Amino acid sequence: MTQQDAAMSDEAQSHAWTDIGTFVADRFARLDADDVPNEVRETVSQFLLDTFGVIAGAARAPGISEMNRAVEGFEPEGAATVLLGDAGRGPSIAAMLNGAASHALDFDDQHDPARVHVFCVVLPAALAASEAKGGVDGRTFTTAVACGVELFCRLGLACYNSLGKGWHPTTALGSLAAALTAGRIFGLDGERMAHALGLAFTQMSGTTQFIADGALAKRMGPGFAARNGVLAARLAATGVTGPVRFLEGKAGLFTLHERGEVKPEILRDGIGERWHLLDLSMKPYPCCRCVHSTIQLGLELYEEGIRPDDVVSGTIVLGEVNAGIVGAPFVPDHANPVVHAQFNACYGLAAALTDGRVGLATYTADRVRAPESALATCFEVTVPGTIEATAIAPAAIELVLKDGRTVAKRTETMKGSPDQPMSEDEIFAKFADCLAWGFGADRAASAKLAEAILALESASDVRDVVTAFRAVRAGA
To answer: Residue 117 in contact with residue 170, Cβ under 8 Å?
Structure first.
């Protein structure tokens, strides 16, 4: 390609990207509640239930009490609810703490193709903005959530290799989604919404290094994003301006962060008509989604009678991006055992073969450090090149058994995804299990709270659901 051709190509790309940020901001700001189809609202309701559940389950998760202690005497008390705290805080800090709680178990939803967890950012931002504004009804709330989640999914799909570059897209792109959500609650017009998104972009951060290091900072990522978005929307509402070319500018998201690897048409086309949030997945296991196919295969082998004593060694086959996230060797005495295990395919396979189930009890420090976890050291992860690098669902395992046999399994789908969804009974069981784990709540209390959350759409004030949640936590 000649220098002139390159210049023309750059010019064409620049033209294709012109004003995308302001267009997206204006289009989402203009969506009316009636523009959100019933199917979308039902999906939002289902995932709100799931997210409130995983927040409750996180009450005993490592890092949660420490984060709440960190703000005591450091951040002033306020009117916004910290769902797992004993005192309210200012809206941005409440959003941060609730966002961290939403993600602490790594049990929250994911848009698999976009590789983003969405409700762990959007719900905390929506709650904080609603309590700051006051008197927000359920329909307004769910419309804002739907818009924020949809933008989030589109951002993840447009920036299709963000994770492969070392970004944690939930944290990074989540700031923009949270700003849109809070901006909708605050009633921002298109111009101010663009400034809100620009101000969120200015604060954007997020790295997978906390995964590689097994740090508790992993669960803080969505909290940082929710905090950034709420603050950005508040600043824009009062007239503070942000960079409106936050997507297409020379130092915008597309070029600076994504190095030109973007599909901008996914962000722009069909807003209000095509809802990518309908492709969300719900997690059946409380660990990184990249491990789920491996766990599935392990559970199938357990059902077929394979036990740890039968196994000599094993190989787990994953795509390049998945292997980069969860393919490290298992370290039995890791300094951060829970996070390490949540992001380790070898441990997930070992737990499935040992216990025949994988749940909240699988990811505790005692269980991770138990002698039976040593089985995970017999496994390794490989990348054969036959799986698309960014594909999340495909996986294969091959076990060498003591009797000389080799058994192999492969899957192209994951439980909880649109093509293999969790049943209604499974969703409610997960919700009840989370409340029992975190709050010690019985099935009756869980059912009552679930009813309130699923009726949120018709609530006159979303704070009624917050009150119901806090009552279950208090054992009322």
So the answer is: yes
Maximal C-alpha separation, the chain: 72
Cα 172 to Cα 177: distance, rounded to the nearest angstrom: 10
pLDDT tens for 280-296 read: 999 999 999 999 999 99
Strands 379-382 and 311-317: parallel
Backbone torsions φ then ψ of 381, nearest 5 degrees: -105, 135
Joined tokens for residue 424? 């209604």
Q: Which residue has the tokens 């980069």?
A: 324
DSSP letters for 326-384: H-SPP-TT-SSHHHHHHT-HHHHHHHHHHHS--SGGGGSHHHHTSGGGGGGGGEEEE--
| Nearest CA-CA partner of 165 in 197, 202, 208 | 208
Give the strand pairing for 77-80 and 395-401.
unpaired
Place of tokens 């086959």: 317
- Token pair in block for residue 300: 């199938």
List of domains in the chain? 3-279 (1.10.4100.10), 289-411 (3.30.1330.120)
Q: Tell me: the pLDDT tens digits for 337-361?
A: 998 999 999 999 999 999 999 999 9
| 364/340 Cα distance (integer angstroms) | 11
